[in-house]
Amino acid sequence: MSDSLLITAMTVGYLVIVLLVGLRARRGQASSLEGYVAGGRHMGLLVLFFILGAEIFSAFAFLGAPGWAYSKGAPAFYIIAYLTLAVIVWWLIAPHISRLGRRHGFLTQAEFLSACYPTPKNVLGLVIGVVSVLAMIPYLTIQIAGAGMLFEAATSGTIPFWLGSLLACGVVAAYVYASGLQGIGWTNLMQGLMMVVIAWALGLTTAEQFFGGVGEMFQQIKDQAPEYLTMPGATGMGWGAFSTAVLVSALGCVMWPHIFMKFYSAKDVRTLKRVFVLYPLYSYLLVPLLIIGFAGIVLLAGTPLDSPDRVLLTIVVELADLPAWVIGLALSGALAAAMSTAANLAHTSATILVRDVVQFSPRMRALPEHKALSLTRYGVIAISLMAYLLALANPGSLVSLLLGAYGIIVQLLPMLLGALFWRRASQTAAFIGLSVGAVITLVLQFGIDAPFGWHPGFCGLVVNSAIFVIISLMRKSRESRSPVESLSPQV
Fold it and tell me: Would you say 339 and 331 are in contact if contact means Cβ atoms under 8 Å apart?
């Protein structure tokens, strides 16, 4: 059997195993919307740890992070910085979200925020739902595009980009459609373990085979391309862009609906906090992947790639002297990263699309639960298909696409903090601030350049926060409690 056929057979076999594990998780699952969306709110430490790990460590980790290390150098460490800060934000905010979600039966992020800031006909919930879906489809696209790139490179074109993307997208859509969060949890447990082992094996093998060790690798980079080891890096990412990227990503982490909504699924707050304590262990996954990206600075000098996101594939598949079965395992590990996150995103996006957008209509809001559940399952297929079509449009750098999505979703943060901690928070201020912040972010992302090199989402967040505070202070306070305290005096 040729190398490409062996690699293809291994990866297709891996997809079949994931599909079987995901479908098997449906056994014993309650046929309720709460069971499908929140896993019955009884997720334990181990499964929740790997679910939240898969929320962050995706195709972006295996392809985008090495790509930034290769193309930019030191600025790639923004990823390590924001993940460190994000856990602190989770620790402070997530317990409140988990308790209220369980008490009031919330299933989506918009339901939580619109309950804190009630508006006529629940317009705020609709706006949040639309913003969330628009932000999450590009994030899902990253995973599908990453899977296609992995298949095409590792199989030497035997499986082209369009087919590789379709295979991964189809498997994910199938088991999420059938099993919901239970299927996501068990497949993420299997795929998470695989990702960690394979990432470290690839990183250390690359450094040892080409340089004799990690220290010698960085010494060669220092001698040949020292600009990659200092800020602003090889492409001039200044401190303004770096620091605002860290802030937007760290603050945006808690606002991603697929993360926010997993706080509802924890068995209890103690379990949630234990996950946060252990979570940095998962972050070590990035270290060997960044090592591979830095190795590319020397190994691929003078050989520009079509996309920096291909650096890991180029080194592992074309340069490293690895047996075909090892390459097959490596591809499977990278696919695990893409598919585990894609499952979470498709599941959450479909839930939001149905609960917050489609059921905004009073007639649709009256749907029986079993019909709402069926509609949510069909939503998984529709969202996955939209992301697949966007992936075929070749959306550019995975990291840039992700940072743009973070810029939109972080605009929800001021209203959440106001609801939890500020008695003067105003629903009018929350609505106007969100709308203006999102528009500014989109204009700076796709139109004019942001000032000082700042992240467009940070600029939108500054204006959003200022509007939220000023309008809240201008309006007369009718309540002596924060929006969350008004919702539930026991908080």
Answer: no
Token pair listed for 166? 């379709």
Torsion on CA atoms 202, 204, 207, 213, rounded to nearest 10: -170
User: What's the CA angle centered on 380, arms 151 and 114, to 5 degrees?
Assistant: 130
For Cα atoms 161, 165, 171, give the angle at the middle one, nearest 5 degrees. Answer: 150
What was the pLDDT predicted at 70?
92
- Tokens 């040949």, residue? 224
Residue 476 burial by Cβ neighbours in a 10 Å radius (0-12, 13-18, 19+): exposed
DSSP E strand boundaries for 56-101: none
Give the predicted TM-score (pTM) of the model.
0.82
**What local confidence, expressed as pLDDT, does residue 400 receive?**
60
Note the pLDDT of residue 466.
Answer: 96
| Residue among 30, 379, 336 at smallest CA distance from 181 | 30
Q: 132 near 355, Cβ under 8 Å?
A: no
Residue whose structure tokens are 């150098």: 73
| Beta bridge mates, 266 | 43
CA distances from 316 to 70, 287, 300 (A): 14, 16, 12
Residue 476: per-residue pLDDT: 61
Q: Is the Cβ–Cβ distance between 262 and 51 less than 8 Å? A: yes
Cα separation values, 311 from 246, 297, 324, Å: 23, 9, 18
CA-CA distance, 186 to 367, in Å (whole number)?
A: 30
Q: Which amino acid is at 347?
A: H
| Residue stretches of the chain with pLDDT short of 50 | 489-491
Asked if 109 contacts 260 with a C-beta cutoff of 8 angstroms, the reply is yes
What's the pLDDT at 9? Answer: 85
Backbone torsions φ then ψ of 30, nearest 5 degrees: -65, 140
